[in-house]
Amino acid sequence: MTEPLTLEQPADIAKKMARWSAYACGLAIVVIMLGAWTRLVDAGLGCPDWPGCYGFLTVPQSEASIAIANARFPETPVDVAKGWPEMIHRYAAGILGLVVFALAAVAVRHRRSGVPVKLPLFIAGFILLQGAFGAWTVTLKLWPQVVALHLLGGFTTLSLLLLLTLRLRKRAEAGSGQRDMSSVRLGRFRPWLYGGLFLVVLQIALGAWTAANYAAVACTDLPTCQGQWWPQGMDFRHGFDITQQVGPNYLGGQLTADGRVAIHVTHRLGAVIVLGYLVILLGLLWRQRGNSNLDRSIALIAAALTLQIALGLANVWFYIPLSIAIAHNAMGAGLLLSMVNLIWRHHRLPHVQTSPATHTTTINREVTA
Prior knowledge:
Blueprint: H1 10-40, H2 63-72, H3 80-109, H4 118-139, H5 144-176, H6 190-212, H7 236-239, H8 257-287, H9 295-317, H10 322-347, E1 350-354, E2 361-365
Antiparallel strand pairs: 1-2
């Protein structure tokens, strides 16, 4: 006799998808770190074409393959040491894309079980856009606008994957009857939390522009820059000119020293603003957290912020060592994720509403869809 078939429960489906979504988050962080590695070793044009490398699936290494590659691209002779970082980054991004597409397919297949569908499909579409930016990064020869947008796209993909993971976990908990019943009045902090997220995103954008224009080494001393608190001759108009023409090879950057100093100083000022804002916000949240179970989320942001500032300082002190520069990129992602996580946890808290007419208090559960 055959055993009766058992249908998979919606909570089980959501739980499995949440695990794969969390795996995709980890892989997205790896892709971001590999992108930083590729950029920092000046391998962004290690392969002059896309998605292959000199027309091959891997970096050409044999004498015959190198001869063919050099004949195809005579202006950019093969450099195996720079080709591999670029291709490893592409392989990792390709694997991430496959995982995201699989999540979208499973979400569509099990759409009647209550799992999110629109978000996985949106992420899958965004991955295609990221692939296009990856191609333009190479074909437009590291044009700073495209490079910066490609970096921001990686952080956006990561944030969306975390949001998907949190929603799937919420769906799994709802199916198993788990609830967070903490009650505390923290609703007034919501706009300030979004303000903190905006500042973090803006600082990441400044970091992307700094990296795209090779301005990280424009100031090599602390806390001053080139021995001055406000360097003379900084050219902000030139440094933040987003109309740079397409065509030149931007490997190493095309901006003047004054333009790069302006970018670097702006990035430093942004770090000071983010630090001050988050220290005050986290301090107020910590004092009024009550029994909200936000302790770990607040502590996570504090730890990520401390490490990120320390890594930024170390980058200047030690003149952009590869390991610290890559860690600085990764911790930027960590700070962004910790902010998204805190906002999510805050949204899941019940909020207290007091009726002015009756002075009665009701607790409503707020859960993001």
